[in-house]
Write a structure and sequence with these properties.
Elements (H helix, E strand, L loop, with lengths): L1 H15 L12 H14 L6 H12 L3 H6 L1 H11 L2 H10 L1 H4 L13
Length: about 110
């Protein structure tokens, strides 16, 4: 309990001072493929031409940051196929795949 409290306090102090955790430099091919696959899985049941274009963009993306930028497109496609609640759930579920690769400020949940 004390250890968790101390680590939380350290993170809060670091954040207050502007010290952010360092992002990993470059993902391995295996890590990048795993992130790509997670995003592809989100839109796997969407068949529109827009979804096909998104799949192509996902396949061409070279960094986790590029892939994270495509989440809005994925959200739109999923919400058109299903609804906004399903889209938000799927996009929010991706956050774990992007932790450490994308700045924590950008990893905001969709409400």
């Amino acid at each position: 309990m004390e250890t968790r409290l101390i680590s939380t306090l350290v993170r809060l102090l670091d954040a207050a001072q502007g010290n952010r955790p360092k992002l990993r430099k470059r993902p391995s091919l295996k890590e990048l493929l795993a992130i790509r696959q997670a995003l592809l899985d989100c839109v796997s049941d969407c068949d529109s031409p827009t979804a096909q274009r998104l799949r192509h963009k996902i396949g061409q993306s070279q960094t986790p940051q590029d892939l994270w930028q495509l989440r809005n497109d994925a959200y739109q496609i999923i919400s058109q196929r299903h609804n906004q609640k399903v889209a938000a759930e799927r996009i929010n579920a991706l956050m774990a795949d992007f932790q450490g690769w994308v700045d924590a400020k950008q990893l905001a949940r969709i409400k």
